[in-house]
Design brief:
Layout: H1 3-27, E1 73-74, H2 76-79, E2 88-91, E3 96-98, H3 103-106, E4 120-121, H4 123-127, E5 138-139, H5 150-154, E6 167-168, H6 170-174, E7 185-186, H7 197-200, H8 205-213, E8 216-217, H9 219-223, E9 233-234, H10 244-248, H11 253-261, E10 264-265, E11 283-284, H12 294-299, E12 306-307, E13 313-314, H13 317-323, E14 326-327, H14 329-332, E15 344-345, H15 369-372, H16 378-381, E16 392-393, E17 396-397, H17 398-403, E18 420-421, E19 430-433, E20 438-441, E21 444-447, E22 450-453, E23 461-464, H18 479-482
Antiparallel strand pairs: 1-5, 2-3, 4-7, 6-9, 8-11, 10-15, 12-13, 14-18, 16-17, 19-20, 21-22, 22-23
């Protein structure tokens, strides 16, 4: 069928349809005509002008390009209706325009950007693609960005910054990428306004004060915060690159090896805060970046009774030491690390050397390695002496008598508390004994020139240094001093 035939068929069809509708309308109302509302003709858009007016305000009227001025901030030429600053007429009849020069040159014709040779330049700037980020007519900000904030604009390219992690940096949350980054060029890496720690301290002023006044500063803090922190988002607390222990051992490999291989790692390291329980991450007035002096730092946890994995108990050290009248030498100086490992070790109770934990042990020098770290071995190894100890009956060394036994040698902890006690030489008043924990009394008394002891171990026995007491062999005699019972 020809085109003329198709048009004629459509016209006939439309006429038949109109007649049919008219008939049904008339028949449904008893033949009486009904008034119909004639729809208003549609409003036609303004025709494209076929000539360019001298007053270019007409370009952005309600009928034409009104959207080009629908912004809080307008581009300078738009504000003064100077559309021809960026558009050149090609054909008025077709309303056809072109840019006066290549797009990558157009913006710099007015906006001159000068960069030093050592600057890092943003990739869109290198390409001259200003309109990737800027709207040429206007925007919500002075920068005429295509979005209301930097963040939503930057993630169009930097989609790795998705906000998928549960912790984000404040500027990243606010979409204020420009708080840290220059949009066009910078001498800093990654277009940062400043390099290294200097950038972070622009906001973190209290940290700057801490660094300037502290005696000890963590080396990464002096170089670059990003050695430990992610500047955008992370899954770890304080925007750390990883959890504290895993982060610290990246540099402190020796500590990692100690903890990893220790039979008894320090419990503080096994908690969520790990190293941060004891160490300040940035700066401190205490050596090794400790949060406090050693004793007070230890008291932060050891201010209560602690149950060990094997069910044994560690006393409330803070209460024991602060209430004690006679303190062990290292304890009196607050030097817990003289006897205890900080991070972990192979000995019980994190001791730096072996120490007999039970009351009765056959004599072996290795079992007293901890004590021999400070005390002369002659204290227990010399049977006769008049110089190495005052605990002697004449020249009979009573330490030797207690310790040198094949079966039931008395360990140091039988009589002495390793931390503090009310009696001189930090000697116990009572000591837990047996499976039931019976408090065995130690009635030790010092007197001028000697002393006495009437513990649950033996009958009351005395000693004198200058005028020794003679004990005769027998049930009540010297067996109490030198037998293996």
């Amino acid at each position: 069928m020809s085109t003329t035939g198709r048009k004629r068929g459509v016209q006939v069809g439309m006429a038949l349809l109109a007649a049919s509708l008219s008939a049904s309308w008339m028949s449904g109302t008893g033949g009486q005509p009904v008034t119909m509302v004639t729809p208003e003709p549609p409003v036609s858009k303004a025709l494209r002008p076929t000539s360019i007016p001298e007053n270019l305000a007409g370009c952005s009227t309600a009928e034409c390009h009104s959207e080009t001025k629908a912004f809080t901030r307008l581009h300078g030429p738009m504000y003064v209706n100077a559309c021809d600053a960026c558009h050149v007429v090609v054909d008025p009849k077709l309303h056809l325009f072109k840019l006066p020069m290549a797009e990558n040159l157009l913006c710099t014709n007015c906006h001159e950007l000068e960069f030093d040779e050592d600057m890092m330049i943003h990739e869109p700037v290198v390409r001259g693609a200003c309109m990737d980020c800027h709207n040429p007519h206007g925007g919500a900000t002075n920068g005429l960005l295509r979005t209301e904030q930097y963040g939503s604009l930057c993630v169009r390219c930097h989609d790795e910054l998705s906000g998928a992690h549960n912790l984000s940096h404040g500027p990243a949350i606010a979409g204020a990428c420009n708080a840290c980054h220059e949009p066009h060029a910078s001498k800093g890496r990654k277009l940062l306004e400043f390099d290294g720690t200097t950038l972070c301290l622009q906001c973190h002023v209290s940290l700057e004060v801490e660094i300037e006044t502290a005696r000890v500063v963590h080396e990464p803090v002096l170089n670059d915060c990003q050695l430990c922190h992610d500047p955008h988002e992370t899954k770890s607390t304080s925007l750390l690159l990883s959890e504290p222990e895993a982060l610290c051992v990246r540099c402190h490999e020796d500590i990692h090896e100690t903890v990893d291989n220790a039979i008894n790692p320090h419990g503080a390291i096994l908690t969520e805060r790990s190293c941060l329980n004891c160490h300040s991450p940035h700066a401190s007035d205490h050596e090794r970046l400790l949060r406090n002096d050693v004793e007070q730092l230890c008291f932060a946890c050891h201010d209560k009774v602690i149950e060990r994995d094997d069910g044994s108990l560690i006393a409330n050290m803070k209460d024991l030491i602060e209430s004690g009248k006679s303190l062990h030498g290292p304890v009196s100086k607050g030097n817990c690390v003289a006897c205890h490992e900080i991070h972990g070790g192979d000995n019980s109770r994190l001791l730096v050397r072996k120490y007999a934990e039970t009351m009765y042990v056959p004599f072996d020098e290795s079992r007293y390695a901890l004590c021999f770290g400070c005390h002369d071995q002659a204290l227990v190894n010399l049977k006769q002496t008049t110089t190495v100890t005052d605990f002697r009956n004449g020249d009979l060394n009573l330490h030797y008598v207690h310790v040198h036994r094949d079966k039931k040698g008395r360990s140091c902890g039988m009589c002495h508390d390793a931390h503090a006690a009310d009696r001189e030489r930090h000697i116990y008043e009572t000591v837990p004994f047996g499976p039931g924990g019976w408090e065995l009394p130690i009635f030790f008394r010092r007197v001028e020139g000697g002393g006495s002891c009437a513990s649950g171990c033996h009958q009351s026995l005395s000693y004198r240094r200058d005028d020794p007491i003679i004990y005769t062999p027998g049930p009540e005699g010297s067996k109490h001093l030198e037998s293996d019972d």
